[in-house]
Amino acid sequence: MDTGAGREPRQERSRATRARLLDAAVACLAERGAAGATVGAVAERAGVSRGAAQHHFPTREDLFLAALRYMLDNRGEELRRGAAAVPEGPGRTEAVVQMVVDAFSGVDFQAALQLWAAAASDPVLRERILPMEEQMGREVHRAAVDLLGADESAPGVRETVQATLDLARGLGLANLLADDGPRRRRIVRRWARVLDAELRGAPD
Amino acid sequence: MDTGAGREPRQERSRATRARLLDAAVACLAERGAAGATVGAVAERAGVSRGAAQHHFPTREDLFLAALRYMLDNRGEELRRGAAAVPEGPGRTEAVVQMVVDAFSGVDFQAALQLWAAAASDPVLRERILPMEEQMGREVHRAAVDLLGADESAPGVRETVQATLDLARGLGLANLLADDGPRRRRIVRRWARVLDAELRGAPD
User: Fold this and answer.
1) A203 to chain B, minimum CA–CA distance in Å?
2) What ranges are recorded for DNA binding (chains A, B) (predicted)?
3) What does the domain layout of chain B look like in residue ranges?
4) Whose CA is closest to B164, among B140, B131, B183?
5) Beta carbons of B190 and A118 less than 8 Å apart
6) pLDDT 10s per residue in chain A (204 long)?
7) What ipTM was estimated for this complex?
8) Which top CATH class is A7-200?
9) Does A202 touch chain B (CB under 8 A)?
10) Fold of B60-200
11) What are phi and psi of B145, to 5 degrees?
């Protein structure tokens, strides 16, 4: 009789294997690009058999889309944690800008960029990743509006918040090839002052 | 006796062939990515024999670097033309922001992005394209400072101009997968107003 006692650990192992494969896929994408992130290379990096990897992700596209979904879920989780940690008071705006900039950086951003680059020449992949990217954009935008206490009914405020996300995306791209840390810090600080003036100053 | 009469047309033909190959390389990179932009594929697109292409560009790296140099030279030329056409008066800041945003868009930006993505996993390519990218960044920055009449000795002004370039880069990336035109227009207009307030307003 199957009481489920054997099934639980098996499901848990399967989940752990899947997570290991997704972590490896993100690392492979960031380091080698989409062309280098084959199911075989990802399986090897994860220390998982090729057969097990193919059981989870029959095609490379399955693997890519699951990796992007995994990155977006992690990002959502980070945003929620970051939002809870943003301080009240005068440093708040800068902390929020830093949080948005951080959302477009690191190995996840590098991996996502490789997927965007691959999608630029692959219409099927593009159609599938676009809605996921749009969802991510909406979530970061919503978090920024809430945390900044921005009133989007005031003219120009929506565009100013959107520009903050575009700036963060641009900083992420500038950071791809060279460590851009000190410059990023100065720009985050400056942008926070601009935002304070724009969002709390006189409307125009 | 070689009077040079035969050499001139030959050199001209060679220059024209080279330009056709570079145009084709930019198009191939933008549409197919670095993996798809082989010397053979570029030669075919340019309507040039493979042998002639290999004479001009013995390796794919030679072709990539020459294509990037070609894009940067074209960009410099566009900036000079754009600078001459920027109107005086109240629309000037918006025209300058639009010019900077345009510098990070179109097929050239898409091709360069594919090279950056490839360079992220290729340290040799990265070392060679970094100085070219830095030169491009300095040129756009210098043009923006001059055209905006920005006083970089005032605190924060340098960062505000740099942020304009990062914003433009981020808008270019957002435009990669989906046509982002109307949103870009709104953000350009908004950012121009912010810049006017920042650069002409009271220093902080």
Assistant:
1) 11
2) 38-57
3) 60-200
4) B140
5) no
6) 555 556 668 889 999 999 999 999 999 999 999 999 999 999 999 999 999 999 999 999 999 999 999 999 998 899 899 999 999 988 999 999 999 999 898 899 999 999 999 998 899 999 999 999 898 899 999 999 999 999 999 999 999 999 999 999 999 999 988 888 899 999 999 999 999 999 886 444
7) 0.91
8) mainly alpha
9) no
10) Tetracycline Repressor; domain 2 (1.10.357)
11) -60, -50
